[in-house]
Amino acid sequence: MIYIIDHNDSFTYNVVHQFSLYDEVECDNYNAINESKLKKASVIIFSPGPGNPKNYPSSSKIYKKFKGKKKIIGICLGFQQILFCEGAKIVEQKKIYHGFQSNIQVVNNKSLFKKGKKFKVGRYHSLKLKEPFKIRNFEITMRCLESKAAMAFENNKDKIYGFQFHPESFLTINGNLLIKKILSA
Amino acid sequence: MDIRKLAIESQISQINDLKETYLKVLEQESKTPNLKFGLGELPLSEQKSNTYEYELLNNLINVKIPRQKNINFPKGIFYKPEKIINLSNNLKYKCTKNLRNSDFKININKNAYTKIFDKFKKKIKSGETYQIKICTKYKTKSKIDPLDFFTRLSKTNLAPEAFMIKDKNYSIISCSPENLINKKGSEISTKPIAGTVKKTKSLNKIKALNYFKKNIKETKEHNMIVDMERNDLSRVCKVGSVKLSKQKIVEEYKDLFHYVSLIKGKLKKNIKNIDIIKAMMPGGSVIGCPKINTLNLLNKQEKENRNIYTGSFGYIKFNGDMRFNIIIRSILNFKNFSEISVASGVVVDSNSSHEFNENFIKAKALIDLFK
User: Which of A6, B8, B203, B291: disulfide with A12, CB 3.0–4.6 Å?
Assistant: First the structure.
């Protein structure tokens, strides 16, 4: 079972539908976490959402508790949430991408995806990862072709994955394939 | 033309009471005191026609509105239609008494608007909202004949979701173009509008489409609304059934071109109409995104109740089918005061002076009716 933690976003149910194509999904608000569902889940997903990772201490707590024990995936705010828990700084960016379609590329040969492969993806983020960023086992695997901002990370040892873009957006081409590959990793 | 009133919730203030009453009204079809006159688009006989005001829709999804300036207009109104009339596209009506007054006052001046705008822009930069719609209101004291207004409005702007209500102490005249919920059996669709351009001699449909495609701001706003409406439908629809059936097309109206998308889905089993209303209302295109956080930001900022504006009007048939619009481009006349509300979006690359003027243009079409 996949447990999606909703950070009050208006895109969370797109995420729910996307993951439901591959497994049973449960979804609760970050304010109303069900401990038994959390325990039962094989995958935990941190949803997109407004604001800054520091606004969601309960999600950080869940991450730290289950890191390395369950597969964890973060999308948009969820991506930032995981990196924030790992000590990274999440900062405002000059150009803001809301409802924006960007070309991104796989930039790392430790990725599950083939290095050099390009994707068209939908973006909704005000904040971004501050770089340089170096944490053991975490690899930035995709970047925006234009701004070079980090668009995905993978930690294949602990099975932790994050997308700064929205694989569930209608602006992302072949978003389902990305999810399928991460889920079967 | 006699329509019976099912219930008017005017004295309800407690949220829980409100919900209960609301649910009761949805499920109950008896008790019908008299009502003078009501008119909407009513293609079939067995249906109720409802208006949900903005505050009620907030309360339904547990968003609280702080104390605001309030004219105490009812939060929700339910009618039971008795007679169906077909309206021709060419309405003729001779008005006898009208005490119009076109001396409208705006509730937020340009300076105040710019301040609010800049504040919200900061909220966008920090990620608290991605898009937010500031509402401004124009008001005047006047006595109007709603049928006269509706007739004249439909001559210049025959909108697909237009409606009119005339009751004892209030009337609503609306030329809303936007459908929020269209439910038939287990099929449901929504048709958000994000992007409007005025028709000119040189601007045809193809050129309008090019205009929208090249306009990055309009495109981004539209994309956001499409993903948001997909989300809201996904709350009540079967997995894999939510499809973008028309993506970013241009629809032509008498004076305007609209940039619209059509999103469809198949309802999950055991979904009630109240679940659909909670998932979809208030409509995302008139609030901003993401819904809950943006509503909270708006409600903290807006000092005056939105009343009907960005609420919904529509009908529920006894077989459960329903259709609801979003109440925009409308005049509310209550206790001899007329108000017209308009809103436009703050996104990161919008400009306050442009949006302020855009608001005025939207309101002007309705204000002109008072001349």
Answer: A6
Q: At A37, which CATH number?
A: 3.40.50.880
Tally helices (H) and strands (E) across chain B: 9, 18
Q: Cα dist. B70→B22, B75, B99, B283, B300 in Å?
A: 21, 11, 24, 22, 15
Identify whether the C-beta of residue B333 lies closer than 8 Å to the C-beta of residue B146. Answer: yes
Residue in B with minimal Cα distance to A100:
B220
* Whole-angstrom distance, CA of residue B67 vs CA of residue B123: 22
The pair phi, psi for residue B98, each rounded to 5°, is -150, 125
- Reading the block at residue A45, the tokens are 């997903």
Q: For this structure, is A144 an active site residue? A: no
Q: What is the ipTM of this complex?
A: 0.96
- In sequence order, what E strands does B211-254 have? 243-252
Beta A90-106 vs A139-144: how paired, if at all?
A: antiparallel
pTM across the whole model: 0.88
Domain ranges, residue A33? 2-184
* Rounded Cα distance, B20 and B6, in Å: 15
Task: Check if A114 contacts B (Cβ < 8 Å).
Answer: no
Question: What domains sit in chain B, N to C, each tagged with a CATH number?
Answer: 4-193+296-370 (3.60.120.10)
Number of domains in chain A: 1
Tell me which residue of B351, B332, B345 sits closest to B166, measured CA to CA.
B332
Q: Cβ of A91 under 8 Å from any chain B Cβ?
A: no
Report chain A residues whose CB lies below 8 A from the CB of B242: 17
Q: In sequence order, which residues have a C-beta less than 8 Å from that of residue A132 and are 6 or more positions away?
A: none
Which pair of structure tokens corresponds to residue B3?
Answer: 């329509």
The pLDDT profile of chain B, 371 residues, written as one tens digit per residue, is 222 222 222 222 223 333 444 444 444 332 322 222 223 333 333 456 677 777 777 777 777 777 777 777 887 888 777 777 777 777 777 776 666 777 889 999 999 999 999 999 999 999 999 999 989 999 999 888 888 888 888 887 778 888 888 888 899 999 899 999 999 999 999 999 988 888 888 999 999 999 999 998 889 999 999 999 999 999 999 999 999 999 999 998 777 888 999 999 999 999 999 899 999 999 998 899 999 999 999 988 888 888 899 999 988 888 889 999 999 999 999 988 999 999 988 887 788 888 888 888 888 888 888 88
Q: Name the residue among B364, B285, B304 with its Cα closest to residue B331.
A: B364
Stretch 62-81 of chain A: residues touching chain B, C-beta under 8 Å: 77
